[in-house]
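To whoever is on call:

I kicked off a structure prediction for a single chain this morning and the downstream step that reads the tokens threw a length-mismatch warning. I double-checked the sequence; it's 343 residues and nothing unusual in it as far as I can see. Pasting both halves so you can look.
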Amino acid sequence: MILGIESSCDESALALFDEHSGLVGEWVHSQISVHENYGGIVPDLASREHLNKFPLLLEKMQSKLDGIDVNRIAVTCGPGLAGCLAMGLAFAKSLALVWQVSLVGVNHLRGHAYSPFISLHKSDPSKFDMNLQGYLPHLGLIVSGGNTILFRLNKDYSMDILAQTVDDAAGEALDKGAKLLGMKYPGGPLIEEQAQQGNRKAFDFPRAYFTSEELKFSFSGLKTSLRYHLEKTSDDNLEILIPDICASYQEAIVKALERKTEQALSFSSFASMGLSGGVANNLRLQEVFTILAQRNNLPFFKADRAHTGDNAAMIAFSSYADPTGTIPANNFDLSFYPSLTLN
């Protein structure tokens, strides 16, 4: 049994994963209500919440531990907020010492990369390794508030980054766009809600690198374009136009993600596609990527909604699915965490 621990940002999360049966249970504390009045994450408050909530989550988890032996702890070791990561690591190290079990670190982004395959394991745990091999090499897209990464998962489980953002991440662009529109944090879901009532062709927002063959994402210019557009719009007109603005703004992000993924598909051969990260919950993005996978005759794996944000299930699962990608406890070094990528 593997205990997963996640504390990279504003979610305190625990999960138990059994390689023979899958997820046994998950316990999560979200900090959205703590940070929403500040318009974003306040690192000191986030760290304090982890310190206060992990013991309570462990207490809730105790009922599942009757007769169950945890033989490994997998904890997020970056990238993320240093103070938040330190709280998770301290908690994990304490449990590992008390329970006398092994402790490994898991890269947060590798957790996202493997999260779409949790459902594959659930369908037939005994044949997971063989089934996964049949879907490799895999083209995955991680889309979240902090990262936008297109990667290749090879048959030997190594990962290659094919494209990433040079500035804002897609989720960051959605949240910042929502803030410009006067919406609360987190604003991405609020933009999507308004977009469902709007015309996504109403406004022509820029899509960086769209005609270029360079595999890069960029969304900071899109945010600036929205700001200029709003400065030219009267308050009376803005209320009427918000659904169209949100639909067009969201579409620019979705189509930029689709364009670079489509280019990657044309440059190399893949056996499957995947979508993960918090923005993977966006219904328009799911629709576009489902069609893209069908157009290329590829199986499409999407992380379940519960496993798109920061969650401990993907951390525990990643340590099982790819143990060679874990980091031994004696190599933990907080100064290195913010620079970690997929490898």
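Update from on-call: the warning came from a stale cache, not from the record. Cleared it. Sanity check on the structure: Residues 235-267 form the longest helix (33 residues).
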